[in-house]
Design a protein that fits this description.
The complex is a heterodimer of chains A (188) and B (241).
Chain A: H1 6-14, H2 18-37, H3 43-62, H4 72-90, H5 111-130, H6 133-143, H7 148-155, H8 160-180, H9 182-187
Chain B: H1 6-13, H2 18-30, H3 32-48, H4 51-98, H5 102-113, H6 128-142, H7 146-154, H8 160-172, H9 176-187, H10 195-208, H11 212-223, H12 230-240
The chains are: A mainly alpha (188), B mainly alpha (241).
Chain lengths: 188, 241
């Protein structure tokens, strides 16, 4: 397996590079899984935590907030550790970690806040992907500020009024689906 | 009075006249529930604008799914292996008495050592299309409908699980050269969880098509490694010699 340094890994995350992301998963996921499954979680929890941690790192990168002064392994583990402690707190499980054998750093930046936001956005995006294709397209175009007249032409709707009505319908459908998910109340 | 939430969307869109707009702004500043609904709808819009994040999530889900399948396949295989190994030993002893010339010996060894693998059919659904295609192919394989399984598996690119079962399906329809091509694709990848299996089945195929010298070389390598097939490779080598 080709090895990558921190900079190459970070660039891989920024570029959504499948090869380097696969490397990150193969190289670092086992210790995340061990940590989560040793502390009241299961494999699905470990996979969710791993994914959220990578998205948080990506978001930090985009906001120029990423400062790594340790190894990538330690940094990723520290983000996952923080996210899992929050999960345990939400699940009202005593969050004293029974197994902790990896190095970690206390994250002093806004990782926790960013973590909450990333998780909420993840839920919204999950339900957006479940919408019908025409709903997704209409919502995307409306957010890109494409005029409703043009949206009507692209989608083959009879008028711009109908395009706008359809956008409202789709947004309501999305909002209602999000609200009906049990996780939604936990995330507020 | 319950405030209508649909006004929030119109407010965000800039579709309200000035008096309605002022009213909505007043509700946002004074009514907690209304304010939280406003924040939700704004946040949803922001989330939908994060196209790169959505792509990243999709990539990560695919990677997790692809990697999560492999250990389960191996686990299943390892679990059954003791039974397979026991039956092989008996077959080898009985078979070796009756085997005649070298070619029939090699073919007999193949028959003794080749056992159909069960297909692992995942129930996880991170990537619906990919998952459905692979599941459909593996179900065909399990039902012994190898021609259909081959057609479906040939359509799945860059996936080690698909390559592995494609190789096994080709063995079942006695197309050993094609099976070897599938196993080669696995062996050409950097270290992966199917490597030992692919190496083993590839060598069995070599025996079957008469590439005995090449097969012996691979069995030598296996017998000197920590492969699952170490002992059986040694037995095959003894039988050939």
């Amino acid at each position: 397996m080709t090895e990558y340094n921190v900079e190459e890994i970070i660039e891989g995350i920024r570029q959504n590079d499948v090869v380097r992301l696969d490397y990150v998963y193969k190289k670092f996921y086992p210790q995340i899984k061990f940590f989560v499954t040793s502390n009241s979680g299961d494999e699905d929890d470990a996979q969710d935590i791993f994914q959220e941690a990578i998205v948080i790192i990506f978001n930090k990168l985009k906001q120029n907030q990423l400062q790594i002064s340790c190894t990538f392994k330690t940094y990723l583990y520290s983000v996952c550790r923080l996210l899992w402690l929050k999960q345990l707190e939400k699940r009202k499980i005593k969050n004293e970690l029974s197994i902790e054998k990896n190095d970690y750093i206390e994250l002093t930046d806004k990782t926790e806040e960013l973590g909450d936001r990333t998780e909420r956005f993840g839920l919204y995006q999950e339900y957006f992907k479940k919408l019908s294709e025409d709903c997704r397209k209409v919502l995307e175009m409306s957010l890109e500020k494409i005029p409703y007249k043009k949206i009507a032409v692209i989608m083959g709707y009879k008028s711009d009024k109908y395009a706008k009505k359809r956008k409202y319908q789709c947004k309501e459908k999305l909002i209602n689906s999000i609200k009906s998910d049990p996780k939604f109340k936990e995330l507020l | 009075m319950k405030k209508p939430f649909e006004l929030i969307e119109k407010y965000i869109e800039g579709d309200l006249d000035s008096s309605s707009k002022a009213e909505v702004e007043k509700w946002i500043s004074q009514d907690k529930e209304f304010a939280s609904e406003y924040r939700l709808r704004l946040e949803v819009n922001q989330a939908l604008e994060q196209k790169e994040v959505m792509q990243l999530r999709a990539t990560l889900k695919d990677i997790i799914l692809r990697n999560a399948q492999q250990p389960n396949v191996i686990h299943l295989f390892k679990r059954n292996w003791h039974l397979v190994a026991a039956s092989i030993t008996v077959l080898l002893v009985v078979g070796s008495v009756y085997l005649g010339n070298r070619r029939s010996t090699d073919s007999g060894l193949f028959n003794s050592y080749y056992n159909k693998e069960n297909a692992y059919v995942s129930t996880r659904s991170h990537n619906a299309n990919f998952q459905e295609n692979l599941q459909a192919a593996l179900q065909k394989y399990e039902l012994d409908e190898y021609d259909s399984a081959i057609i479906l598996l040939e359509d799945i690119n860059d996936n080690l699980v698909a390559d592995y079962y494609l190789g096994l399906a080709y063995i079942e329809v006695e197309e050993y050269e094609k099976a070897m091509l599938s196993f080669d694709r696995i062996l050409n990848e950097d270290s992966n969880l199917f490597e030992e299996q692919a190496e083993w089945y590839n060598a069995l195929c070599m025996l079957k098509v008469g590439q005995t010298e090449d097969a012996m070389q691979v069995f030598e390598n296996i017998s000197e490694s920590n492969s699952l097939y170490k002992e059986d490779a040694q037995k095959i080598l003894e039988a050939i010699k």
